[in-house]
Amino acid sequence: MAEGTGMSKALAGGIGVLTVSSVCGLVLMTVMYKIQIDKFPPVSPPTPTKPVIPTGLPPTLRLPDYLIPESYKVFLQPYFYSAITNNYTNQSFIFTGNSTVRVKCMEHSKRIYLHVHDLNVTTVEVTKSDSNEKLVVSGYKIHQNESNFLEIQLKETMSGHGTYYDIFTKFEGELLDNLAGFYASWYTKNIKFEHNYCCLFLFTVLHKNVSTNRFLATSLLKPTDARKVFPCFDEPALKAVFHITVIHRPGTSALSNEIGEIDGEEWIVTTFEKTPVMSTYLLAFTVSDFTYISKSSGTNIHIHARTEAIEAGHADYAIQVTENILKYYQNIFGLKYPLKKIDQIALPDISAGALENWGFISYQESGLLYDKKTASSFDQERVATMIAHALAHQWFGNLVTMRWWNDLWLNEGFATYMSYIGVQDAGWDLRDLIVLREIQTAFQVDSLNSSHPLSLQENYIQTSAEIIDLFDDITYRKGAALLRMLATFMTEEAFMKGIKTYLDKFQYNNTVYNDLWNCLQETKENVEAFMSTWIEQAGYPVITIITQTGETSQEHFLLLIHSNIVNFLPNSIPWQVDIRYIKSTDFAVKNELLRVNVRRPHFELKDKDDWLLANVNCTGFFRVNYDEENWNKLRMQLERNHNVIPLINRGQLIDDAFNIARGHRLNVTIALSLTKYLINDTEYIPWESALKNLDHLILMFDRSEVYGPIMKYLRKQITPLYKHFEEYTLNGTIPEKHTEQYNQVNAISVACSSGFPECIEMAKSLFKDYRNGTNDIHPNLRRAIYCSAIASGDEYDWEFAWKEYQRATVTAEKDKLRYALTCTKEIWLLNRYLQYTLDPSKIRKMDLVSTISYIAKNVAGQPLAWDFVRGHWSYITQEYGISLGSLLDAVTKRFSTDVELEEVLEQDEDDQALAARALEQVIERTEANIKWVKENKQIVKEWFMGEL
Ligand SMILES: *[C@@H]1O[C@H](CO)[C@@H](O)[C@H](O)[C@H]1NC(C)=O
Ligand SMILES: *[C@@H]1O[C@H](CO)[C@@H](O)[C@H](O)[C@H]1NC(C)=O
Ligand SMILES: *[C@@H]1O[C@H](CO)[C@@H](O)[C@H](O)[C@H]1NC(C)=O
Ligand SMILES: *[C@@H]1O[C@H](CO)[C@@H](O)[C@H](O)[C@H]1NC(C)=O
Ligand SMILES: *[C@@H]1O[C@H](CO)[C@@H](O)[C@H](O)[C@H]1NC(C)=O
Ligand SMILES: [Zn+2]
């Protein structure tokens, strides 16, 4: 338990106690504690080695396959109290338990391997199930490497004829506050004045602010932390039935995957119904004093949260959305949700946005709770989207599970893709935004040599760190993008038909992606041939069409073309490209399947005024480049009448042009001039695409003389959009359509940040009213307006917002303020704010990554954030135990100088095992930026100067 011991001491030892008793016998207590930041010397993870075991051994870090678990009986007993109400209570964050797992043995053997991590195993017994006869255990040991194997050695040989054995273990563990495994968490409960009117006197003394800390225990087991709760066969294909019992203190209730029955007094014993056959990573346990609301419609739906949030009605939206989407999914997937109940819980601290545990889904508060008064449309949509994603997993992942983590995309790609269809049913017409949010983002990472194929070979992914690395933009977003492409290729109807077959055939089972192709092929031929070129190799092509001749070719699109790689990576094969296109002469969408580079007569334009547009709606996962003439004709069409070009493509043309220019295949001035027509477009998709790409230019140039001209141009372009929404903005109202609402926010944040005086005045005045006690700012605009006011404000504005942040009880409002605080230009405030991120009583652990990332986005905060991350890297990686790839990515986005590259390379020499792939990608991106900036700085500057 090396890293374990410190934390619970910190939790227990740091508790300061203040007790006040009153005439009515009410004993109140404020527990204040500050989690001490214990300094441990960084421990480098052991290098993966073959376990050194005598015979019959696993050749890899995977469990041997001769023991097949069938069922578990697990008892867990956490000792903590949710509240400390007197001086004599000894808070304790220990848990104990025992587990009996019944296995089928398929090979004669004297050894048993299962997974254990950070648990003290105190007893091991093995019995033959049918005869109850005990086998003599000669010893057991935990392997000191990344295998996390608990090896049990037996005196006698187990019979391998499908004989059943029961493996019993007793164990002890600690509830740490590290957001992993079975962990401790806390929240502040405000005790309301009116509930305690008898203690008026007392409260006067306490200035009416009475809040106490409440403790809870919850779990996050995905992907490989079930082994931190009880010894188990912790691989997704080793599905079993689980009988869970949780023994907990009165005043708390226990939740797990199935319905619980309660009995007991001093301790409450909650026994849960047996689960369906399922993977270990989908188990979940929570012990808390939360309350809930419920609804029944075939399935019992419960939403659990802090009492205050439930009483304020913040869970009402989630329950309604859950009911709708659940029904809808059962319909389109053709399979009933298999459990009787679905619990969802809003947790104060969880490092994932949501966890799809079967029948018991956990969320960050902002992912499940919705407060009409303070939430923006974004916040509300986030709730719907997160629920849609987690519910999709109940089928994709929970019912049908990937065989091993290398095919994680079968879970995450599907859940991401389906969430866009699911939210549609909950009233969010956002299907097209998949292009902005998922596809364009996937394009970014996947244009690097250091990207990876969507599906890696099984034996490449073995350690927990390698598994965690896979939770990235490729798995989620490229996975979703390719499913969308496939659905278009097959037609959506045929696709959904094949999906139903797949779910039906493999329910309660595990799959590899070929199982999916086989099911889809029942409705459309050649799915496998089409998809294998996309799944098995990294990257994507840029298709170049020369419209004068119709010559069409494909090339692996890379930002940085190394001199030794031409056209394709070694071993790469041409992609099968389904090109859907329109011409100015014929708006009917046609398609061509391209594999080899040839002349396509259809792509030849006869008249010099005609244009061709390929990849209609960006359904294909590729970029398109044209001859300059065709680019210019498309631009002129946009300027003449942009509505002729499909909405998604107005955004995609811009995104393609900027990125192809970043990849040195197109003059950047062509990309820049595509943004000129925006003065007449008010749609969100093209604007958002343009702003993302201009944002990248700003990152490259905001420390140079190019910055001024870029800002002037932006101000000029954004003014009409700002004016378009001005009436709403000034009246404190919002447009009806969601995408319009999002674009109103764009208009304000860009107008203000580019220095448009009316915008800054508006923001300042609204913020001033807020400081004087009336917050009339529409929730949609708060993030932008707080940020702008703090950026142009002083120390007192910052302190005011900081107080408001600490006072706010609704996470959605807190998050807006937490973001806005990063907008200040004051170095000392930013530096102090960075320090706050290490103190969980100021910035919660789960918010560390995003807070530092926001600070890095601010040009004044960039070098501070980078120094901070470097200085605290070992501490952060150890304390947070989560993949920090996204943090590394965020703090280095601006990097484009040789000095910065050197600094990153220095990090590479240090121990960076936790984010190895992310670091590689950062290095490559920085190299690409350096090269690009050198070649293009002058050109970009001149173009912007010319537009003034
Ligand atoms: C609790 O401890 C405090 C400080 O040690 C003491 O002043 C107080 O009387 C104790 N209260 C009870 C109810 O024992
Ligand atoms: C496991 O723990 C529970 C609760 O402490 C206990 O009731 C049960 O007897 C234990 N099981 C065995 C086999 O010891
Ligand atoms: C686990 O064992 C170690 C070493 O004996 C001990 O220091 C630690 O307190 C134990 N942890 C628990 C939770 O019992
Ligand atoms: C799981 O699928 C495999 C085929 O991939 C099949 O052989 C096996 O019987 C299935 N198992 C169950 C429990 O359905
Ligand atoms: C492109 O997407 C739009 C929605 O933005 C849709 O109405 C249109 O039918 C799509 N076109 C094709 C060819 O799929
Ligand atoms: Zn997911």
UniProtKB/TrEMBL annotation:
<dbReference type="GO" id="GO:0006508">
    <property type="term" value="P:proteolysis"/>
</dbReference>
<keyword id="KW-0645">Protease</keyword>
<feature type="binding site">
    <location>
        <position position="412"/>
    </location>
    <ligand>
        <name>Zn(2+)</name>
    </ligand>
</feature>
<feature type="site" description="Transition state stabilizer">
    <location>
        <position position="476"/>
    </location>
</feature>
<dbReference type="Pfam" id="PF17900">
    <property type="entry name" value="Peptidase_M1_N"/>
</dbReference>
<keyword id="KW-0479">Metal-binding</keyword>
<dbReference type="InterPro" id="IPR034016">
    <property type="entry name" value="M1_APN-typ"/>
</dbReference>
<keyword id="KW-0378">Hydrolase</keyword>
<dbReference type="InterPro" id="IPR042097">
    <property type="entry name" value="Aminopeptidase_N-like_N_sf"/>
</dbReference>
<feature type="domain" description="Aminopeptidase N-like N-terminal">
    <location>
        <begin position="69"/>
        <end position="282"/>
    </location>
</feature>
<keyword id="KW-0482">Metalloprotease</keyword>
<dbReference type="InterPro" id="IPR001930">
    <property type="entry name" value="Peptidase_M1"/>
</dbReference>
<keyword id="KW-0472">Membrane</keyword>
<dbReference type="GO" id="GO:0005886">
    <property type="term" value="C:plasma membrane"/>
</dbReference>
<keyword id="KW-0812">Transmembrane</keyword>
<dbReference type="GO" id="GO:0005615">
    <property type="term" value="C:extracellular space"/>
</dbReference>
<dbReference type="InterPro" id="IPR024571">
    <property type="entry name" value="ERAP1-like_C_dom"/>
</dbReference>
<keyword id="KW-0031">Aminopeptidase</keyword>
<dbReference type="GO" id="GO:0070006">
    <property type="term" value="F:metalloaminopeptidase activity"/>
</dbReference>
<protein>
    <recommendedName>
        <fullName>Aminopeptidase</fullName>
        <ecNumber>3.4.11.-</ecNumber>
    </recommendedName>
</protein>
<feature type="domain" description="Peptidase M1 membrane alanine aminopeptidase">
    <location>
        <begin position="317"/>
        <end position="534"/>
    </location>
</feature>
<dbReference type="Pfam" id="PF11838">
    <property type="entry name" value="ERAP1_C"/>
</dbReference>
<keyword id="KW-1133">Transmembrane helix</keyword>
<comment type="similarity">
    <text>Belongs to the peptidase M1 family.</text>
</comment>
<dbReference type="InterPro" id="IPR045357">
    <property type="entry name" value="Aminopeptidase_N-like_N"/>
</dbReference>
<dbReference type="Pfam" id="PF01433">
    <property type="entry name" value="Peptidase_M1"/>
</dbReference>
<feature type="transmembrane region" description="Helical">
    <location>
        <begin position="12"/>
        <end position="33"/>
    </location>
</feature>
<dbReference type="GO" id="GO:0005737">
    <property type="term" value="C:cytoplasm"/>
</dbReference>
<dbReference type="InterPro" id="IPR014782">
    <property type="entry name" value="Peptidase_M1_dom"/>
</dbReference>
<feature type="domain" description="ERAP1-like C-terminal">
    <location>
        <begin position="611"/>
        <end position="927"/>
    </location>
</feature>
<dbReference type="InterPro" id="IPR050344">
    <property type="entry name" value="Peptidase_M1_aminopeptidases"/>
</dbReference>
<dbReference type="InterPro" id="IPR027268">
    <property type="entry name" value="Peptidase_M4/M1_CTD_sf"/>
</dbReference>
<keyword id="KW-0325">Glycoprotein</keyword>
<feature type="binding site">
    <location>
        <position position="393"/>
    </location>
    <ligand>
        <name>Zn(2+)</name>
    </ligand>
</feature>
<dbReference type="GO" id="GO:0008270">
    <property type="term" value="F:zinc ion binding"/>
</dbReference>
<dbReference type="GO" id="GO:0043171">
    <property type="term" value="P:peptide catabolic process"/>
</dbReference>
<dbReference type="GO" id="GO:0042277">
    <property type="term" value="F:peptide binding"/>
</dbReference>
<feature type="binding site">
    <location>
        <position position="389"/>
    </location>
    <ligand>
        <name>Zn(2+)</name>
    </ligand>
</feature>
<keyword id="KW-0862">Zinc</keyword>
<keyword id="KW-0735">Signal-anchor</keyword>
